[in-house]
Amino acid sequence: MSTTETKTDTELAAHTSAEARFQYYVAQNVPLLLSIGILIAMVMIYLILFVLTQHHLPGNFEFSTTLNNTMTVGLAAIGQTLVVLTGGIDLSVGGIVDVTNSLAAQMMHDSPGSMLEITLLVLLVGAGAGFINGILVAYGRLQPIIVTIATLAIWQGVALLILPQQGGFIPTGFTNLLAGNIRVLGNLPSSLIIFILLILLWQVLRRTRFLVTLYAIGNDERAARANGAPVMLAKVGAYTVGGIFSGLAGLYLAAVATSGDATSGTPLTLTSIAAVVLGGVSLFGGRGSAIGSLMGAAILTLILSVLFFAGVNPQLQEFFQGLFLILAVIASTLVRPLLQSGR
Amino acid sequence: MTSIEGRDISKSFGGVQALHKASFSAEPGEVHALVGENGAGKSTMIKILSGLFRADAGEIHVQGHEVVLEDPQAALRLSIGTIFQELTLLPYMTVAENLLMGREPRNLGLIDRKATISAAWKLLREHGIPGIEPLELVANLSLGQRQIVEIVKVISRNPQVLFMDEPTSALAEREVEWLFGIIRKLRTQGTCIVFTSHRWNEIKGIADRITIFRNGENVGTYEATDLNEQDAVERMTGRKLNMLYTEPSPLTEQTPMLQVHNLAGTGLQEVSLTANRGEVLGIGGLAGQGQRELFLTLFGVNHLKSGTIEVEGKQVRISNPRDAINKGMALIPEDRKTEGLLLPLPVRQNLTLPILRQVSRNGFIQRLEETSLIRTMIDRLSILTPSDDQPVGTLSGGNQQKVLIGRWLLTKARILLLYDVTRGVDVATKYEIYELIRRLSEEGHTILFYSTDTEEMAHVCHRVLVMREGRIIDEITGPHIAPEAIVAAAIHVIAQVNVEVPR
Questions:
Q1: Is A250 helix (H, G, I), strand (E, B) or coil?
Q2: Of B35, B346, B400, B442, which sits most exposed with the smallest number of CB within 10 A?
Q3: Tens digit of pLDDT at every position of chain A (343 positions)
């Protein structure tokens, strides 16, 4: 008896060993690994072009600027990921960013109290906007694309009401906090700390029932319901938390720009979707990781720098951006079978 | 006291009355079979008693108390576990995540992945399933393995009432035995088990009582010992049915239609076979011995590593399904819902999808020509449909299967690869399909036939090739193939059995 039990225990240990889990993880997360691969390739290209044109290595300034730009797209992309995981899509991301960006620039004063107040307000507005989307999609049984196209327009309008002209004011202290440098372990950009915190946050979220339910819904909504999962609540939750991340993106955008603009967030609807796709999250739902979306955001930011250092005519920037996106997606579809054939 | 009871339940979908004041009840410690034709209302009753559907009218009682089942969660809380016919596994999540969905072991409020994996591993072991890895994605499992995971998932919650809607349709005989072992154990523990099946020997083998549904109504509950198959089928269909297998008509000529030499590919080794014009050639053996791979390779879905395929004596290159279709082949798969038919589209479009080029002039579909082709096919296969424009999803399973076969006949396919086409099909329709196979064979079609039901294979085929581990290991020729001979060859216990069994 005891010998069979020992045998079972060793077998079990073999099955749950870090090594076994890692092998399956690799096989099942090929799209995420690919996005990391593309990011590394982009960094290389960027470094080469930078050194060739500037004759020195990029310094702290370049590093933090790139990361700061990544963070805005990245935050919006995490919000988008939550919704896309359920098989939905959130086109109102840009609108929520517009509103929160305008709110922050219009209302924030140079005092810690005000900064905290406005930050909380922005999160609340983001959550509220997402909540409305969620209720309409889950309980109103409306198509996510229609709901969020409508709320996108609404929030764009509201943003213009709040901040009719570009401007407003973001205290320097706030900018330094979010987009400056923090004196820990030398002189690290705060965006790097936030980037790492977001990855850790995702690891925690991934272990919650909420996230598992989102994945389940994206896999098969009917089956998720039959499994007793609270489908409706989880959907509302996805849009709400997604809205909070959009709000954070708006706040971050304001901090980086040190002022507000009621229209500067609008492009984030499309860039957040592009980041999600580049990050290997399936638009059909149920597969992928927000870490991939963060990678996607970094890739998109780097494309701009690469095009700049390659001396591409700025008017053709979007043309090449589009071209690159298609190439990246084709490359990953070609490479994917090679990586998966290992098992 | 009854474990579960539905009283005067009515439910309609659109204009179709699925249940009309139907009642059903089951006791603790009994195995209760719920039988009837497809569309009789069995699945609807199960879904209502599991909280997946809300009844239009009627009462539900659980352990003697009236309850309202708002959603499946409510049913789970009342210890009602259900294995639905359409599995509820999540394909891109792991076996472990699926098995423990909603009750994952947690640590500080967060799901403990390692503990989840070992809990899943232990569950699979406890239920005697060593072959499935907890870390594997469900999408990578075979249909039978998925069914097993689904069964383990539901049973491991120790439900007091266990519904199983066609749990055996994807299982091979060994696995059915495994399931029956579990059912017997649960019965002694006092679990109330309700299952549906279209296989009479299974029902007879395990059920204590049998309830028959017809057209959305309960037409009677019987002690299993008091009912024989002929009576049961008559009550299910409301008519007398010729339940004799029609023997395949003898082959008059031996003209090779499809020849395969030394085929190798995914899961296949040195497969050689010849199928003649008008022949129904069975590809038998235990489930998962390469039959599916053989069909997929012949049809160009799977890549062929080496070997040759000849159609009518001419060597052909088949690298994708389009090539196979051009050479006159058609694959009719087990999962007609996901691998063939476009359920929301009408019969018309489902039938003519591959031959649109033929019925179009300058890119416009010639309705009259299309209609006459469709009409001919509907008559020829006696497809029961109110009109050409009926969505295929609303037809019965057997008629859906006929639409799929009809589609390929319209492409003038001469070699039909029928892969488990009677799975989940009710008795009456099964016999219609057998009859259809016989007619197609008489018309000169060559048919490769695989089925999880060995008895059916023995009766339908002229000849059966038995596969094992990707090879053809035996050939059993008729007339009068004995099912036992196929099983014996499949499990390889003996070299010879008396093939000619008198009957």
A1: helix
A2: B442
A3: 444 555 667 777 776 778 888 888 888 888 899 999 999 999 999 999 999 998 998 888 888 899 999 999 999 999 999 999 999 999 999 999 999 999 999 999 999 999 999 999 999 999 999 999 999 999 999 999 999 999 999 999 999 999 999 988 899 989 988 888 877 667 788 999 999 999 999 999 999 999 999 999 999 999 999 998 999 999 999 999 999 999 999 999 999 999 999 999 999 999 999 999 999 999 999 999 999 999 999 999 999 899 988 888 889 988 988 898 888 888 877 877 766 554 3
Residue A17 C-beta-side C-alpha neighbours within 13 Å:
10
Q: For tokens 């010639």, what's the residue?
A: B366
CA distance A271 to A93: 10
Which residue blocks in A227-316 are alpha helix, DSSP H? 231-257, 268-278, 290-309
Q: Which residues of A touch B113 (CB under 8 A)?
A: 21, 207
Place of tokens 């791979």: B293
Query: Are the beta carbons of B127 and B155 closer than 8 angstroms?
Result: yes
Tell me how far apart the alpha carbons of residues A14 and B380 are, in angstroms, rounded to a whole number: 58
Do A299 and A316 contact (CB within 8 A), yes or no?
no
CA–CA dist A230, B367 (Å, integer): 47
* Whole-prediction pTM: 0.81
- Nearest CA to A308 out of A53, A43, A69 is that of A53
CA distance A246 to A134: 14
Q: Do B113 and A222 touch (CB under 8 A)?
A: no
- Pick the closest to residue A218 from B93, B84, B100 (CA basis): B93
Among A212, A284, A341, the strongest candidate for a mutation testing the B interface, having the largest count of B CBs within 10 A, is A212
- The token pair that represents B195 in the structure block: 């299952």
CB A23, CB A14: distance < 8 Å = no
Inter-axis angle of helices B173-188 and B143-155, nearest 10? 10
> Do A170 and A259 meet the contact criterion of CB atoms below 8 Å apart?
yes
Q: Extract long-range pairs of B249-257: CB within 8 Å, 24+ residues apart.
A: B249/B438, B249/B441, B249/B442, B250/B479, B251/B276, B251/B278, B251/B279, B251/B462, B252/B278, B253/B277, B253/B278, B256/B310, B256/B312, B256/B313, B257/B311, B257/B312, B257/B414, B257/B415, B257/B446
Question: How many Cα atoms within 13 Å fall on the side-chain side of residue A9?
Answer: 6
Query: What's the CA gap between A42 and A307, in Å, rounded?
Result: 11
State how far the Cα of A78 lies from the Cα of A91, in Å rounded to an integer. 13
Closest residue to B92, CB basis, from A224, A225, A287: A287
Do A245 and A125 contact (CB within 8 A), yes or no? no
Cβ within 8 Å, pair B121-A16: yes
Q: Which CATH architecture has domain A57-334?
A: Orthogonal Bundle (1.10)
**What are the residues whose beta carbons fall under 8 Å from the beta carbon of A12, sequence distance 6 or more?**
B118, B121, B122
Cβ pairs A/B, distance under 8 A: 92
Domain ranges of chain A: 57-334
Helices (H) and strands (E) in chain A, counts: 15, 2
| Contacting residues for B333 by C-beta, under 8 A, at least 6 apart | B339, B340, B419, B420
